[in-house]
Specification:
single chain, 378 residues, alpha+beta, Immunoglobulin-like, Rossmann fold, 3 domains, six-stranded mixed β-sheet, four-stranded antiparallel β-sheet, 9 helices, 19 strands, elongated
Length: 378
């Protein structure tokens, strides 16, 4: 660990202000030109002496959480124990270098403030992860200014602090969604869920205010009074969230890649689907398929989807929709709802995607059981 002595901003400003004064002295009294180099030497000596008597660093550490979510602020705490005098404005200065996944610039700086104990200084740096994966804080610097604030000691240290960056689950933790899910599950055990599904549940007498499209005219004709159909909300559906991990989806929108915004939306929808009794799987592809999870049917298994979504990598290549949809077709054994997240930069790629999805619908419906079932929904 090295402790080089460097001039501070205060010393640089003094040198900059002294330069015009030296020019004026040289023009007004040429015989007194020696004053300028003597003043410069004195300033340099003050910088060195001030740096030598600056505070001494005894110990410092970085406190960072092992996990973070993409797009969410990540506080990193820096604690340093310093003995001796310190004359810097505000306190010692600390800086960090880290993986660009933790911030677009790959570096940040902060001021340290006195802590609860004598000689302890601490400060917080707020990072903003921009991509998923494992990122590391690689190096940190600490600058200690002397009593005059002209010279400073600067020390650097190599660190290996790893932080796992997960998909953003803020929408799932939002009070609005949690309240909605509690209301949706109210009375679930007491009765079967009736709603706007497609599975027939029962007939009931038509009452004013009911949707007229629910009237069963054949049953009404037999009973000589109006009867309406009550359908049961569908459950145990298979839902596949497919992600295009190609180049277009890796482009940032408002500082965050499109694929990360798609992952957040898909995980939120997946959580709601699991709460409703459906089964969910994730599928990621670029030039070739990357991730395909088995179907999960319980919120206890949601962490599997979260881990799989965190492993969706970024690829600077064009996606192969034909290969990806053919692979997905071979793995589906029953009717499924497929939600595809993608983006296009040219109409040719869009036409290829639409053609591949159309082939998926046709092939999947042909592989279904002989019983009459509606085709795969797009």
């Amino acid at each position: 660990m090295k402790f080089p002595i460097i001039p501070t901003a205060r010393a640089a400003w003094l040198a900059a202000l002294a330069a015009p004064l030296a020019v004026v002295i040289a023009a007004a009294a040429p015989a007194a030109w020696v004053v300028a180099p003597v003043a410069g030497a004195v300033l340099l000596l003050l910088v060195v002496v001030d740096g030598l008597v600056a505070g001494r660093l005894d110990h410092w550490q970085i406190n960072a959480p092992p996990d973070a979510e993409v797009g969410e602020p990540l506080p990193v705490s820096i604690v340093a124990n310093i003995s001796g005098r310190h004359g810097g404005a505000g306190g010692p200065q600390a800086a960090l270098a880290f993986d660009p996944r933790l911030g677009s610039d790959g570096r940040c700086a902060t001021l340290l403030h006195p802590g609860a104990q004598a000689g302890q200084w601490q400060g917080d740096a707020i990072l903003l992860p921009t991509r998923r994966g494992t990122a590391r804080i690689t190096q940190m610097w600490l600058r200690l200014a002397g009593p005059l604030g002209l010279g400073a000691r600067q020390t650097s240290r190599q660190v290996e602090t790893a932080i796992r960056i997960w998909p953003d689950l803020t929408p799932i933790r939002s009070p609005e969604l949690q309240q909605y899910l509690r209301d949706a599950q109210f009375g679930l055990i007491a009765r079967r869920i009736r709603g706007e599904g497609t599975q027939f549940e029962a007939l009931s007498e038509y009452e004013p205010g009911m949707d007229r499209r629910r009237i069963d005219w054949k049953a009404s004709a037999r009973h000589t009074r109006l009867y309406a159909r009550e359908n049961e909300s569908e459950r145990n559906n298979q839902i596949v969230f497919a992600f295009d991990c190609g180049q277009a989806m890796c482009e940032p929108v408002d500082g965050l890649a499109r694929i990360d915004r798609a992952v957040t939306a898909a995980l939120t929808a997946a959580y709601v689907a699991l709460k409703s009794g459906d089964r969910v799987a994730l599928f990621g592809f670029a030039r070739k398929p990357q991730v395909m999870t088995p179907f999960v049917g319980s919120t206890r298994e949601f962490t599997q989807l979260q881990s799989a979504a965190a492993n969706l990598d970024y690829h600077a290549e064009e996606p192969n929709f034909t290969y990806a949809m053919a692979t997905l077709t071979a793995r589906l054994q029953r009717r499924s709802l497929i939600v595809l997240f993608s983006d296009f930069t040219d109409p040719t790629a869009a036409e290829m995607m639409v053609e591949s999805v159309g082939r998926l619908v046709t092939n999947t419906s042909c592989c279904l059981s002989p019983s009459p079932m509606p085709k795969l929904r797009q």
